[in-house]
Amino acid sequence: xxxxxxSNTRNExxxxxxxxxxxxxxxxxxxxxxxxAKIAAMQxxxxxxxxxSSLKGRFGTxxxxxxxxxxxxxxxxxxxxxxxxxxxxxxxxxxEE
Length: 97
Prior knowledge:
Largest sheet: 4 strands, antiparallel
Number of strands: 4
Family: Belongs to the eukaryotic ribosomal protein eS24 family.
CATH topology: Alpha-Beta Plaits
Distance between the termini: 36 Å
Shape: globular
Strand content: 35-45%
InterPro entries: Nucleotide-bd_a/b_plait_sf, Ribosomal_eS24, Ribosomal_uL23/eL15/eS24_sf
GO biological process, one term: translation
GO molecular function, one term: structural constituent of ribosome
Protein name: Small ribosomal subunit protein eS24
Radius of gyration: 14 Å
Helix content: 10-25%
Number of domains: 1
């Protein structure tokens, strides 16, 4: 998977960077966690401070466009983002039998 950052805008009011990107891949569409981990590594930031707000793929193409929000602190992330977006980025808990 190859990720190209198309824009990186600083939002001082919300203490975050808004990163627009395009991810080109082979095979199946990559998981949100994989895309988030790669963007976090490219921006030298922990995954805990990153939220993928939107991912859009077009039918018939091997590319996904999206927006990632990278916060200065986890507290700023929790104060700003909605709960379902925060939960969407975390791994699912394994079921106990």
